[in-house]
Amino acid sequence: MKLNFSTIEWKDVPVSPVGSQGGPASPSQCGKVRILDQTMLPSKLVYKHIETPLAMAESIKSLIVRGAPLIGVAAAYGVALAGYNSEALNYGEFKKDIKMAITTLRSTRPTAYNLFSALNRMEKIIETAHEISLLKSLLLKEAHHIKKEDEQICQKIGENGLSLIPNKARILTHCNAGALATAGIGTALAPIYLAKEKGKNLEVFVPETRPALQGARLTAWELSQAGIPVTLICDSARGTVIKNKDINLCIVGADRIAKNGDIANKIGTYTLAVLAKTHNIPFYVAAPSTTFDPIIKSGNKIPIEERNPDEIKKISNREIALKDVKVFNPVFDVTPYEYITGFITENGIQKPPF
Ligand code: MRU
């Protein structure tokens, strides 16, 4: 499956004049990370270059880079940047730089577990050596690993979910759990891409996903790029679509999965799961193992991010509500495991009991 965009790429930047060093990346080079600015889609394909962990943290907070698996990869590269570009002269100073970057990145978004699983992995690396140049390359290597693994996991999720998609499938998803949310071909959208590649006919119904419109701006765009028929609906049309449009199945992604199988995903996922159960439509969650929180027992313990009220009070910077109206803007909700037909992971399809 070939995509015509790339969400995240590491770039080596020679510090000394080109050609004077030659050879592979060395401490005489610094790095930057090229990310696709998702706030500009679908009107413009704009890439941004990130040079510091702080800039990476800002990009994660402001949804320039988003989606649980991609947030994990971006955070890992944020730490790699802190290491690669550090001017520390001894191990103590270097470790301080890395720890500070990790703390900053950890505080960006509370819900997506991938952020924490990736940062925990990066944190372990600083204890494996004491030599700064070695640590710089080990940190970068680990970030590359996290990215590569995510690409491979997405492919596996696609292959494992393929059998669930009949020919002429009519699928309802939510938010964006596609290539834009990962380093690969996505989670919820991965089986859809592979089904299309196998020549299956399908149609995907995409809710706009208020307030940040990931469905309208991102999912509808990336599926259309791949030639997959999309029907965009407003969030409140999902009941009507499930009831009247012969939907075969729902597939969504997840930001965090508790030990009992409860999931946190974009606000509105729970409503969709209740609708699916009421209408006897299978409701699948596609997610990598990096989204499974090994500690949190149930969904009510998952931290739910609340974002700026302006996301609801304004559309395209235009005020659509009273300036001082009280707003509640949780951007994720929890779907209890009872509503989930199965999980599609890189290890196969898992059905209850979870
Ligand atoms: O706020 P976002 O855009 O980061 O939310 C994204 C989602 O809710 C996705 O469904 C989830 O991260 C899974 S992505 C494979």
Write the layout of secondary structure elements.
Layout: E1 8-14, E2 29-36, E3 47-50, H1 53-61, H2 68-84, H3 91-106, H4 113-125, H5 132-161, E4 169-172, H6 190-197, E5 202-207, H7 214-225, E6 230-233, H8 238-244, E7 249-252, E8 256-257, E9 263-266, H9 269-278, E10 283-286, H10 310-313, E11 314-315, E12 318-319, E13 332-335, E14 342-345, E15 348-350
Parallel strand pairs: 4-5, 4-7, 5-6, 7-10, 10-14
Antiparallel strand pairs: 1-2, 2-3, 8-9, 9-13, 11-12, 14-15
The chain binds 5-S-methyl-1-O-phosphono-5-thio-D-ribulose.
5-S-methyl-1-O-phosphono-5-thio-D-ribulose (MRU) binds at residues 66-69, 112, 175, 177, 181-182, 187, 214, 253-255, 265-266, 331.
Please give a structural write-up.
The protein is α/β, with parallel strands linked by helices. It has helices spanning 53-61, 68-84, 91-106, 113-125, 132-161, 190-197, 214-225, 238-244, 269-278, 310-313, and strands spanning 8-14, 29-36, 47-50, 169-172, 202-207, 230-233, 249-252, 256-257, 263-266, 283-286, 314-315, 318-319, 332-335, 342-345, 348-350. The chain folds into 2 domains: 8-155, Four Helix Bundle (Hemerythrin (Met), subunit A) (Up-down Bundle); 160-350, 3-Layer(aba) Sandwich (Rossmann fold), CATH 3.40.50. It is built from 10 helices and 15 strands. The strands form 4 sheets. It has a 7-stranded mixed sheet, with helices on both faces. It has a 3-stranded antiparallel sheet with strand order 1-2-3. A 3-stranded antiparallel sheet has the order 8-9-13, with helices on one face. Helix 7 links the parallel strand 5 (202-207) and strand 6 (230-233). The two termini are 31 Å apart. Mean pLDDT is 95; it is low at 19-26. The structure holds 5-S-methyl-1-O-phosphono-5-thio-D-ribulose. Residues 66-69, 112, 175, 177, 181-182, 187, 214, 253-255, 265-266, 331 line the site of 5-S-methyl-1-O-phosphono-5-thio-D-ribulose. The site of 5-S-methyl-1-O-phosphono-5-thio-D-ribulose (MRU) has 17 residues, from helix 2 and strand 9.
